[in-house]
Amino acid sequence: MITFSLEKRDTEEVKEILETYRELIDDFFDPEKKGYAFGAPLNRHEKTLYLEKDRQQQLWANYFLNDALTYYDLEYSERYATQKGLHGRFDLLGLRRETEGYTLLLAELKSSPQALWGKSGIASHERDYLDYLDSPCLELRKEEACETVRLLCKIFGKPYPEDLTPENIQNAKIQFVFSDKVINVGKSYYPTDGRIEKIYLGNEK
User: How far is CA 161 from CA 8, 44, 95, 140, 158, in A?
Assistant: First the structure.
């Protein structure tokens, strides 16, 4: 079983990252903030939408510009995807260093039972994401991933990994990340394709 931890990054380092993007993401992190984006209530952590957003932001922050695994984009939406008959929306986009090269990750986070079925459910996302993996868009995402990480490294004064090139992103996978109330559901979920992997978020056994 593969489990992501929310404790991998130094607290001060994560705090610095979050402060840099505070104007974009503090609506999700500060429980005392009064003016939430989208009219979110103060008890947003009890609402399934905001719980999932919290987990998404935490996952991004804890692996941000990590050498072995990084998530470089959140709530990605390809503008013209629907015109191409593709889904083109992902909770997170990431890169994972392998023994040779990198793997591009299209990640979908599931934190509540309501997110497991219907139009935004697992079966629907499996079909949509697999179609995307088989599309020409994937080559554009590889180029975009390298350029995004390059810019982020420049902003944060981090060295850019010279082996990170579009040609060196040799694989692409779909990642279902299960957290909180649906971890047990994730354990009983069996992907329909070898390009799909499941991950658990937290320290749960």
Answer: 20, 38, 12, 19, 9
Reported confidence tier of residue 29, pLDDT bands at 50, 70, 90: very low
| Three-class SS state of 195 | coil
Give the pLDDT mean for 85-89. Answer: 67
Residue 148 is predicted with a pLDDT of 92
Q: Is 118 exposed, middle or buried (0-12, 13-18, 19+ CB in 10 A)?
A: exposed
CA distance between the termini of the chain: 9
pTM of the model: 0.73
CA-CA-CA-CA torsion sign (139, 144, 147, 149): negative
Q: In terms of residue numbers, what domain contains 64? A: 3-201
Read off the pLDDT of each residue in 89-108 and give the average, rounded to a whole number. 92
> Residue 74 phi/psi, 5° resolution?
-125, 150
Domain count, the chain: 1
On the CB side of 167, CA atoms within 13 Å amount to 2
Q: Walk across the sheet containing 69-77 and list its strands.
A: 3-4, 196-201, 169-179, 102-110, 89-97, 69-77
